[in-house]
Amino acid sequence: MTSLQDFAAPAWSHGFAALGEAFHTEVAPQPLPAPHWVAYSERVANQLRLSPAWLDSGQTLLGLAGCAVLPGTRPLASVYSGHQFGVWAGQLGDGRALLLGELLDRHGVAQEIQLKGAGQTPYSRSGDGRAVLRSSIREFLCSQAMDALGIPTSRALCIAGSSGAVRRETMETAAVVTRVAPSFVRFGHFEHFSYQEARAEHAELRRLADHVVDRHYPQCRDDPAGNPYAALLQAVSERTAGLMAQWQAVGFCHGVMNTDNMSILGLTLDYGPFQFLDAFDPAHICNHSDTQGRYAFHKQPNIGYWNLFCLAQALLPLIGEQEAAVAALESYKAVFPAAMQQAMQSKLGLADSRPGDLELIESLLQLLAKNRVDYSIFWRRLSHWVADTAATRNEPVHDLFLDRAAADAWLALYAGRIAPAERPAASIRMLRTNPKFVLRNHLAEQAIQLAKSGDYTEVATLLSLLESPFDEHPGFDGYAAFPPEWASSLEISCSS
Ligand code: AMP
Ligand code: MG
């Protein structure tokens, strides 16, 4: 039994800080005026065994708004580098994030707790160290949404708002998100120490790799070839491949897949101009600042591989032989297509894989693209359609297509693939795979506009829907409906 006392004061530890001064700078947060709560996740609080009493205390609010240093924490900013939009950007680092330390969660896993937006650090460059309320709400909601979809991600405990003004394209107000992940180490951390250290021994690069292996990939020590760093590269490649397949399957566009935003644990990290697709457009670019479309939706799997190549180059001094690095990377080319096919089969409710399935999937995606069909609504309607063993009513699905005859032809093919007796069970599986609720841009925008006037009810409503995105939530169908006209004119940029 857990007693109340266990909850009283979180017990902080500092594994990352122990790596040494080369990896970080201790920085006090910069206070924001008049902090107040905007939102918090009971689910994450429970996971971290944080008591409502601790969360409710004024001291916790001050601490998580960056106005005070919480007892037991040691705020620090870490240094990393990275490739941004395909170009080596040199040193970056936590310009507005502060790691407070780690807490053991319910499952005994150490979770790093980070404040985002708590002021400048030595790595802020020309930035103000702040995050605006708008982007904080998007990050908070999306990280919970992804987790509930079963997609690896950093989480968020809460948002503290403030009256403090922040200049972006217009004047906005500042907020601080408390983020949670087993590690915030990025590919860019490895790139930093690989390129910084002219010395042949690469002591810091090795220390970082050992830290990540020991804490997160201990099985790499048992690598049959005796090369734990090649094994690490392979494990990260496989996780990243799996993540990319999950993003593509659910229609998630990250928007800024720079190597400094790539998690060494294969988590979705650094929510910026992300978007869940409305109409299915493989070439969709969600980041208004991405003028070349480098991070367009359909390019994400290749960019994931490109980023892993950067990681491989950074790890090469430890891996030693180029062939071992190349072989580790190769795993991506096998894992991604297999994971992608598996994900699409699940979306189609197919319990096994048969010849012809790839063609069935490919022809569907082409049809969805050609007809600009709403991606989430299509899958949800298809999941219900399957339940009808007579398969007589195509309307709900084919009404989504301009070319209804083509949709009917595809439905006939698909109906031929699932035996009538299997359909009810397939439908049940599909309704647990294809979400009814995703964080569409316009939903976030509505919650943000209200929040700007001090009303956070829409943030709370969205949180509750997105925490169980496969449930029907009677009465909330509007949140699962087509986007309004104005949604397509929303411009979400890197500005956050
Ligand atoms: P992002 O595009 O948010 O992943 O950020 C890229 C880099 O810029 C990271 O090093 C961030 O810490 C830094 N950065 C972004 N916004 C700010 C800001 N407002 N103040 C300081 N640093 C920032
Ligand atoms: Mg970033």
Give an overview in words.
This protein has 496 residues and is α+β, with helices and mostly antiparallel strands. The chain folds into 3 domains: 2-184, no CATH class; 188-346, no CATH class; 351-431, no CATH class. It is built from 17 helices and 12 strands. Strands 2, 6, 7, 8, 9 and 10 form a 6-stranded antiparallel β-sheet that branches. A hairpin with a 3-residue loop joins strand 9 and strand 10 (171-181). Helix 5 packs parallel to helix 17, helix 8 (228-250) runs antiparallel to helix 9 and helix 11 (357-370) packs antiparallel against helix 14. The protein is globular and about 65 Å long. The chain starts with a helix and ends in a 29-residue tail after the last helix. The model is unreliable at 1-7 (pLDDT under 50). The structure holds adenosine monophosphate and magnesium ion. Residues 92-96, 123-124, 127-130, 256, 261, 270, 272, 494 line the site of adenosine monophosphate (AMP).
Global mean pLDDT: 95
Enumerate how many helices there are, as a single number.
17
Subunit organisation of the chains: single chain
Which stretches of 5+ consecutive residues score pLDDT under 50? 1-7
Query: How much helicity do the residues have?
Result: 40-55%
Shape: globular
Q: What's this model, at a glance?
A:
With 496 residues, the chain is an alpha+beta fold. Helix content is 42%, strand content 13%. The two termini are 43 Å apart.
